[in-house]
Design a protein that fits this description.
- Two copies of one chain form a homodimer.
- The first copy, chain A, has 200 residues and is α/β, with parallel strands linked by helices.
- Chain A contains six helices and seven strands; from the N terminus they run E-H-E-E-H-E-H-E-H-E-H-H-E.
- A seven-stranded parallel β-sheet of chain A has the order 3-2-1-4-5-6-7, sandwiched between helices.
- In chain A, helix 1 crosses helix 6 and helix 2 packs parallel to helix 3.
- The first copy, chain A, is globular and about 45 Å long.
- Chain A starts with a strand and ends in a 6-residue tail after the last strand.
- The interface between A and B is large, with 42 and 40 residues.
């Protein structure tokens, strides 16, 4: 398969590239550090990416920024960033990318555990992650030509916790998280919210 | 209790007013048809409402517009409306209203079944409803002074189905839906997504 991977330079994105790269042709994209550059908060940038890349079998996104901040400190600019980047950025990958995906191809987006397991500071992130899960379930019903849509909702990633100087307990290794994306891309499921820590 | 009810003129809002009105002092607000007017998509309008109303024991919202349209016809303006009105409008009721709610008071917002039971055309609505559920769960963790936050996620309302000329099968009467708001306002639960059709 020819797979467009957006957010390819991140912790999860790199692990997805490793997991899928041996068997598939990958087109790696990210804001700056990949061969293809894209700013998902900018619809024109997404359109230009799909125009450059042409037809693909799958689009995988592990991209998107959202603002983690105490509830009473969350301001308009935090929601503006979170909604335009991680939420609508990934929604627009689907809406603007549908025509570039082959019959029976797939989209796999990234939400996160905070959708259903909030912690203090996650007001905007939980909103965005839950919204992505809801959009994915709905979009799967209407995607044309047998195109599948799934959302991976990863727990904390061990490597990320270590980078943050936190105990890695309860985290899942990026390589294990990446297997959820493999299931979505290579399998037949659609409309699913995939929890990488659940037995597959 | 003194309760600010936003969206008071709608089908669900009217039923909430009936259910809570006998025991509590209600301040009814909506875009046009209530004693207090508010446009929840406009932060200045929300601020002005809270300034006029003063301290309340509870804020209940059954307000918010979102765009129902086939996936491939959903455009920027549909997401703009849905995100600024039903989603961020209700989020801002919490963020801008926290200081107006008494210790141990509550917020009750409205999402909807399409969050978890999408149908064709619900891409934007499912996103918004799921996002509200996620925000409510998170906001409840951080609301100060014992303030509670719940989200009611109603199924189709019988009266609405009849107005649409559809069969009312599977709908729930507005009066039954309203009882979910009563549970949130008068009870002690917080951080919950309340399904009015589930046994209480």
């Amino acid at each position: 398969m020819k797979i467009l991977l957006i957010g390819a330079s991140g912790t999860i994105g790199s692990a997805i590239a490793t997991a899928l790269g041996a068997r598939h042709e990958l087109i790696l994209a990210s804001v700056q550090k990949s061969p293809e550059q894209v700013d998902i908060s900018d619809a024109a940038s997404i359109r230009a990416l799909f125009a450059r890349v042409g037809r693909v079998d799958a689009v995988v996104s592990a991209a998107g920024r959202a603002s983690f901040k105490p509830l009473t400190e969350l301001g308009d600019e935090d929601f503006e960033l979170s909604l335009s980047n991680k939420l609508m950025g990934q929604v627009n990958l689907v809406l603007l990318g549908l025509a570039s995906v082959v019959d029976g191809g797939s989209f796999t987006l990234t939400a996160g555990y905070l959708a259903r397991h909030p912690i203090p500071g996650s007001g905007a992130v939980s909103l965005v992650n839950s919204g992505l899960e809801g959009f994915g379930r709905a979009a799967a019903l209407e995607a044309p030509r047998g195109i599948r849509v799934n959302v991976v909702s990863p727990p904390w990633v061990t490597e990320t916790l270590l980078k943050m100087g936190r105990a890695p307990d309860g985290g899942l290794a990026a390589a294990a998280v990446a297997q959820a994306y493999v299931r979505s891309v290579e399998g037949t499921i659609t409309g699913q919210t995939i929890d990488p820590s659940a037995a597959s």
